[in-house]
Amino acid sequence: MKIVLLGSDKFSQAALVSTCAAGHAPELVVTDTQNSENVATQSVNLESVARRYSIPVLQTEDANSVETIRHLAAIQPDLIMVMGWSQKCSSAFLALPKIGCLGFHPSALPRLRGRSVIPWTILLKEKDIGSSLFWLSEEICAGPIAAQARYAVDPETITAGELHDRALRAITGLLPPLLDQISVGNVPREPQPQTGASTCQKLTQKDRQISWSLPARDIERLIRAAAAPSPGAFTVDPNGNKLTITKVQRLECRTDPRSRPGQVVAAGENTFDVACADNQCIRVLDWAGGCSLPPLLSQLGPDR
Questions:
Q1: Segment 66-74 long-range contacts (CB within 8 Å, at least 24 positions apart)
Q2: Alpha helix ranges (H) inside the chain
Q3: Which domains does the chain have, with CATH numbers?
Q4: Three-state SS for 246?
Q5: Directed axis angle between helix 10-21 and helix 160-183, to 10°?
Q6: Helices (H), 148-287
Q7: pLDDT tens readout for residues 196-231
Q8: pTM to 2 decimal places
Q9: Which of 36, 26, 135 is nearest to 72 (CA)?
């Protein structure tokens, strides 16, 4: 079975490693032209893994370009795995493989189709979640299911990083046995249910900005949801400096009723406490940005 892998992030890396380890090494790896390790964009260099298995690599900026499609058509692939590639595949691309194009999505489809699924999973307080291998179609995330893992999480404690790691484990668990099935002609294609479908929009910078006028529980949830691999939730200090907050603790104790939301009410050596709208505090344990503690000892965010 001739396989091509298209991708450029940790999901595609997990797919490539598990596929090769299971004896289904691709004929070709297609990745972007900026294929280097980049924490900010979650890009991963796939070339080192491809070289380990003597797999040729094609770099492209556009999977739908005439040149890329011509290159793939010459291989005559049976299966194309599109894992960790944000560009929508054209009808010409989808028509290339004999069996189809297999995608991965970190939700239990048809629930939470679309973008920024991991943060929205937390923001929507999802408990019964999953990951899906599915067949790509013209409609985004709507093709038949090939394999799916379901698992329960605690929406009040789970972080974006933990959900991301759980999805990586799902790829390595689902993909090898599915490829074994497909290689012998057993190609599962379970239509997605007509009910229960929902779609997420990309988490914008506006979505990630902390509003201290919210209850502490909601602020803490946003910070967990927007943490890596997302860019992080942020606020702004009195001097206009952006402060990305990556780890917090919600304090059950009440603050001084006179404290305004967004006011820094206490500071330790490596932490500081911010008042929220419900007279509770968020203790900031880890942050990044161009400001230090002294300027923070006043008011944060748009509520100041």
A1: 68/30, 69/93, 69/96, 72/4, 72/28, 72/30, 72/96
A2: 10-21, 47-52, 66-75, 91-94, 117-123, 160-183, 205-208, 216-226, 293-296
A3: 3-200 (3.40.50.170), 205-296 (3.10.25.10)
A4: strand
A5: 40
A6: 160-183, 205-208, 216-226
A7: 999 999 999 999 999 999 999 999 999 999 999 999
A8: 0.89
A9: 26
